[in-house]
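PROTEIN DATA CARD
Card holder: MotA/TolQ/ExbB proton channel family protein
Chain length: 230
Origin: Lutibacter holmesii
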Amino acid sequence: MLSIMLQDAGETLAETVSEEKTLSIYKLIMDGGLGGQIIIAILVVLLAIALYIYFERFFAIKAASKTDSNFMNQIKDHVSHGKLDAAKTLCMQTSSPAARLIEKGISRIGKPLEDINTAIENAGRLEIYKLEKNVPVLATISGAAPMIGFLGTVIGMIVAIHEIANSGGQIDIKMLSDGLYTAMTTTVAGLIVGIISYIQYNHLVVRTNKVVYEMEAKSVEFLDLLNEPI
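Structure generated from the sequence above:
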């Protein structure tokens, strides 16, 4: 009799462990109810947008950061010998923000140095705008995603409290499971999306700043070239 009872207890324990092991993220989301599923769907869309923007900007900034180490030496040689057309051609063949700034400066040679500097600065603002395109969206997602997750938490707690109020004093944990699943899964999902977006945003900002620094350095070098005595 005792052995049978132990065997039954063992089978029950094994079934419980088996059920715990088969608990999946998908099941957690499905058990969270319609409110939790909508919140999770919104967060998945935000994550997809964040990943798209990150990789699109990453490769664009990476391409913009590629510069020929001999570029400025060639520009100096062409400008010092009066070969402005050759210098412009070299800039057009070099697809980089710095080259486009130098091209804008070369096209203004002959005008006052202040006008050349202003033209380069205006062109630089346009190049920075192109580099930072859609990057602020990542910052927005990094801040909005956790808040959306916390909204799911509030919805889940409301559902749980509503079930308690309608239970007639007989509280069952299964009765509260939908609200608790909604609260927990949406909070975790919101934080995950927010953290990923925040890291992506800061990484792109650092890489963009490096490109901007290169643009400024080459612009100053070009202006110094024009200031050199003939």
